Amino acid sequence: MNNKNLYLDLSVIQTVPSSNINRDDTGAPKTAFYGGVTRARVSSQSWKKAMRDYFKKENELVGTRTKEVAEYLAQKMQTLDDTLDKKTAMEKSVTALGAVGIKAKKDKTAGKMLTGALLLVSPGQIDKLAKYVLKHDDLTDKDAKKEIKQILKEDNSLDLALFGRMVADNPELNVDASAQVAHVISTHEIVPEYDYFTALDDLQSNDTNGAAMLGTVEYDSATLYRYANVNIKDLAKNLGKTNAVQSIAAFIKAFILSMPTGKQNTFANKTLPNYVMLTLRTDTPVNLVSAFEEPVTSKNGYVEKSVRKLERAYKSANNLVEEPLLNIVLSQVELPNDEQFKQVEKLVELIDQVTATLTKVMQDEDTND
Length: 369
What we know:
alpha+beta, 10-stranded mixed β-sheet, flat
């Protein structure tokens, strides 16, 4: 039985043109200061939201993150029992959730029963909880609390298993995240730019001069380094071995093909990665962002230079950690043959090879360790 850890590292180089895909509180693109210069930045929360949306589009099982979980549960109960009135359903819902420390109270502004924080629950959890509540009158005794707690810890959806759940009022309901997503940064220095725009009124008379609207939109252009990792054993604990391997394929596709949608209608910045590297390791995940601590400088493009720096950083990192089980690359940049980077030509080949290796390794994996 194999007790070693098993991690998947995903490193992506992707260039985006003029864009503002993740804004700060002033509407400007987010930035970071790294290696002595200002970089473009996209928060991990923003990209995880894009991945959850991608999962939905691909019909993967995803949960619902909401403050209206009491209303959600009450509605589910009413669909299962059409004799149940709305008031009784809500009272039972609030009682059941309150029994395990999830407090919901009437929000005067919204006029709804809301929890203090967003709660991520899977469809399976809500369905089982609704059935349990309908079958039991006393939802506050010791056995009821234990069973409700257990229901909320099983049947994890893909996003819940990957990104986890934190419940401040009851840490027993927490789900440990099996995936980590880094904040994206540009491999080079960026200088914010401003689009000064004007708009005419279609109905204004011919003798009227001037614009009906004017303003500025801040944007930048960047070649980005994106990184995420998955603890395969933790994912298997959350989903089971077979589902974990299938879910890895979904995670890889979502990470590679998704993009936050900030101001996408304005900039149409939906690009695809220029370079993807997937690595299976048994000792530790490795974020290769240090490749860009010294920013890339160029007057004729950043992608190829960024890819070469990334591959050098990979080789350097391997002097400190164990040799990976697998390292596989999909690149739009022409690269010399190098046995440390097993190149494939299509995304489907990349996913097939990773899942085949995982399936073989997972057969002997001890996920209880």
